[in-house]
Specification:
It is a single chain. The chain is of the alpha/beta class. The protein has 2 domains: 180 residues, Spore Coat Polysaccharide Biosynthesis Protein SpsA, Chain A; 82 residues, no CATH class. Strands 1, 2, 3, 4, 5, 6, 7 and 8 form an 8-stranded mixed beta sheet that branches.
Length: 293
C-alpha cells in the first residue's frame, strides 16, 4: 500500500473472492498488477474458500474499511497501471454512477484459438471506451462501487450460484444508479484455450442457467452483447429465449463462427442436463445470519 498513511483508513477496499487463493497462478499475477497501480490508497481483502461467490464478496466487504469497493475476479489481471485510478475518477465524476466497470481485452500472450474465441464471443472482448458509457458489459471481472451504494442495494445475493452480474446490475438501475464502463479502463481475462475447455465452460454455464431457472427464477436475467444499454431489457420470458435460440445457432453458422456455434450447442446440452438432474443446493447460513437468528 505505497503512497498512503497506513494509520488512516484506505479510501478503496479491493475484494477478491477465490476458492483456493491461487487459481493456477492467476492470483499472484493479479496481486502483482495491483501493486503496480498508480493509485495506491487501497487495501486488499483476499477471501479464500467461501462459497457462493456472493457470500465471499459480502464477507470481504464486511471486513473492509474503505469508502469505495472494488471487486476483482481471481483470474483477472489489471492491464494498465492506471486502471484503479480511472475507475475511481469515473465514480468521482458523477454521483449517479453506482457501478463502474473495466473493459475486457485479449492479453498480449493469447493463443490464436483464444483470439478467435474473443472475436466470436462479444462479452469476452469488450470495446474500450473513450467516455463514460452506460453499458451492460460492466461486470465482476473488475468493477467499483461507492460503498454506501453497494450497501444501500443490499450487497450481493448470497443464495445465487450463478448470475451475480445481471442481478446486481438490475438492482442498481432499479435504485436509480448508472452502470457504466470507465474510459480507457482495461483488464485481461483468460479465454478458453482449446475446444475441450470452451465446450466445458459453456456446458457448465448451461447447467448453471438451468439451476437458476429451476430454483431461483426471480434472478434470471438477460445479458446484453452490445456496448450501448439504452434499449436493453433484462427481463424476458423462457418461451422467448427458447424461440430465439435456433436463430442464434443459425446466425453463428451463417457467419462461420464455429466456436460460437459449438458454445451454443454445449450450453443447450448443459441446460437440458441441468434441468433434468439439478438438485437444490443447501447453503448453510452465513455468520451474519447466524448472529441475527
Amino acid at each position: 500500500m505505497r503512497g498512503r498513511d497506513a494509520s488512516e483508513p484506505p479510501r478503496v477496499s479491493i475484494v477478491i473472492p477465490s476458492l483456493d487463493g491461487h487459481r493456477g497462478g492467476c492470483v499472484p499475477r493479479l496481486l502483482a498488477s495491483i501493486e503496480r497501480q498508480t493509485f495506491q490508497d487501497f487495501e486488499v481483502r483476499l477471501v479464500v474458500g467461501v462459497f457462493p461467490q456472493g457470500r465471499a464478496i459480502n464477507q470481504g466487504r464486511r471486513e473492509s474499511l474503505g469508502r469505495v469497493l472494488v471487486i476483482l475476479d481471481d483470474d483477472s489481471e489489471l492491464a494498465d497501471a492506471e486502471t484503479l485510478e480511472r475507475l475511481i475518477a469515473t465514480l468521482d465524476a458523477d454521483e449517479r454512477i453506482g457501478m463502474a466497470g473495466a473493459s475486457i481485452v485479449v492479453p498480449p500472450g493469447a493463443t490464436p484459438f483464444q483470439r478467435r474465441a474473443a472475436f466470436q464471443f462479444p462479452r469476452l472482448n469488450t470495446p474500450v471506451v473513450d467516455a463514460v458509457t452506460d453499458s451492460d458489459l460492466a461486470c465482476h471481472g473488475c468493477c467499483a462501487f461507492p460503498m454506501a451504494v453497494f450497501d444501500a442495494v443490499g450487497g450481493e445475493r448470497e443464495d445465487l450460484v450463478r448470475g451475480l452480474d445481471p442481478d446486481l446490475r438490475v438492482r442498481l438501475r432499479e435504485a436509480g444508479y448508472r452502470v457504466v464502463l470507465a474510459p480507457q479502463c482495461r483488464i485481461y481475462h483468460p479465454m478458453p484455450d482449446g475446444w475441450r475447455a470452451l465446450l466445458r465452460i459453456y456446458f457448465r454455464n448451461g447447467t448453471g442457467s438451468a439451476y437458476a431457472r429451476k430454483f431461483q427464477p426471480d434472478a434470471v436475467y438477460e445479458t446484453h452483447e452490445r456496448l450501448e444499454a439504452a434499449d436493453f431489457q433484462p427481463r424476458t420470458t423462457l418461451a422467448w429465449r427458447m424461440a430465439r435460440y435456433p436463430f442464434r445457432l443459425l446466425g453463428a453458422l451463417a457467419q462461420g463462427q464455429w466456436m460460437r456455434f459449438g458454445g451454443y450447442m454445449a450450453y443447450a446440452f448443459g441446460y437440458a442436463w441441468g434441468w433434468l438432474t439439478a438438485r437444490e443446493i443447501e447453503i448453510p447460513p452465513s455468520s451474519r445470519e447466524a448472529e441475527d437468528a
